[in-house]
Amino acid sequence: MTLDDLWNGTGEWLKGTGPDPDIVMSSRIRLARNLAKYPFPHWASEEQLEGAISDFESAYKQAQGYFNGALFLRMKELDSIEKQMLIERHLISREHIFNPEHKAVLISEREIISIMVNEEDHLRIQVLQPDFNLRDTWELADRIDEELEQYLDFAVFSDLGYLTCCPTNVGTGLRASCMVHLPALVMTKQVGKIVQAIGKLGMTARGLFGEGTEAYGNFFQISNQVTLGHSEEEIVDNLERIIKQIIEQETAARNSIFANQRLLLEDRISRSLAELKSAKLISSEETLGLLSIIRLGADLGIVKGLDRSMLNNLFIQIQPAHLQKKEGKQLSAEERDAVRAEFISKKFNI
C-alpha cells in the first residue's frame, strides 16, 4: 500500500454498514502502551525515541496477519498536507504532527488499524470499524496487543496495570469511543443535557476531530474518561449501555420531528440541497452542517437515491487537506472554499 492508495481509497469505518449506521458512524478502541526499556516519549532522548521506533518496526514485521500490506510512515518525511490528511482520516492525532522528527505511524489496509509511535506514549494502538461494533473492535485490538506483546516488553506495574504518560490512562490504557450523528437531538435542543449526563457517568463528548474540536456536522465522539480501576470489559460494557440509550433518544427525537414538523424539516433539507448544488464559495464548517441535514433526510427516507457511504466519505473529502491533495497544491482559504463548492456541486448535480 502507498500513500496514493490511502488517499484514493475508502476507509472501512466510512462504509455505513451494520445495524445502526444512521446514528453510529464508527466504533474505535485505542490502547496506550509504553516500552519498559525507555522513558516516556516526553522524557526520552533522541536516541531512545529512535530505539522505540526501531523496536516497534521489528515487532510488527514479525507479527503475523494483521499488518500484511500495511504502510509504515515516518512523520518527518511527510509534507504538511499529507500529515493533515492523516488527521482528517482519523488515523493520527493532532498532537502527532508536532515535533515530527522521531515519530511514525503504521496504517493497515482499509485503515482499520493504525498505530502511532512516540505520540504521548510509545505506542497508541487504534482499531476503527464501522457502526456500533464496540465488542468486535475491542476483541481485535486485544488480539493485536497480544501479538505485539510477544515481541515487545510493555511497561506494567502489578498493582496499577499498564503505565502511561497521562495518569487517566493508567490501568488498561484503553479508550473506547463511538462517533454518533445526533442532528435531531441538536435540533430539539436536548443534546446539552445528554452531554452533561454522560459526564456524570465518567464519559466525555468531543467533536468530529477529537479533543478540543467542535461538534461540526452534529457529530459527537462519546468515550470513557478514566481507565484506572476498571477492566476492559467494564469500560466497553459501560460505553455500550450509554450509546444504546443515546441511539434510543436520537431515534425518538427523529420520529417526533418527522411526525410533528415534517414540512419544516423537508424545507430545511431542500434548502440545504439547493445551497450545496449552487454555492460558489463554501466553508468546511458550513458544508458539514448542510451535509448533516441531508444525511438525516436520507436516513428518514425523505431524500432518495443517496448512498450513505458516499455521504460519509464527503464529510472527510471536503476537509482542507483532502481538497489540496486533490488539487495537487496548497490553496488559500478562499481557493479551498471555491474548490469545495465545485466538488460538492458535482456530487449532487447528478
What can you see in these coordinates?
- By secondary structure, this protein is an alpha+beta fold.
- It has 2 domains: 3-254, Creatine Kinase, Chain A, domain 2, CATH 3.30.590.10; 261-348, no CATH class.
- The protein has 12 helices and 10 strands.
- It has helices spanning 3-8, 46-62, 80-88, 134-149, 183-187, 191-200, 232-260, 262-278, 284-299, 308-317, 320-327, 333-348, and strands at residues 24-33, 71-74, 104-107, 113-117, 123-130, 156-157, 161-162, 174-181, 203-206, 219-224.
- Strands 2-3-4-5-1-8-10-9 form an 8-stranded antiparallel β-sheet, covered by helices on one side. A two-stranded antiparallel sheet has the order 6-7.
- The longest helix has 29 residues, at 232-260.
- The two termini are 32 Å apart.
- The model has no long low-confidence stretch (mean pLDDT 92).
> The CATH topology of the largest domain, please?
Creatine Kinase, Chain A, domain 2
Order of helices and strands: HEHEHEEEHEEEHHEEHHHHHH
Helicity range: 40-55%
Spatial strand order of the main sheet: 2-3-4-5-1-8-10-9
CATH class of the largest domain reads Alpha Beta
| Individual helix count | 12
Category from helices, strands and their pairing: alpha+beta
Summed up, the domain count is 2
- pLDDT averaged residue by residue: 92
Quaternary structure state of the chains depicted: single chain
The CATH homologous superfamily name of the largest domain equals: Glutamine synthetase/guanido kinase, catalytic domain
What global shape is seen? Answer: globular
Distance between the termini: 32 Å
Characterize the main sheet: 8 strands, antiparallel
The rounded Rg comes to 21 Å
Q: Tally of extended strands?
A: 10
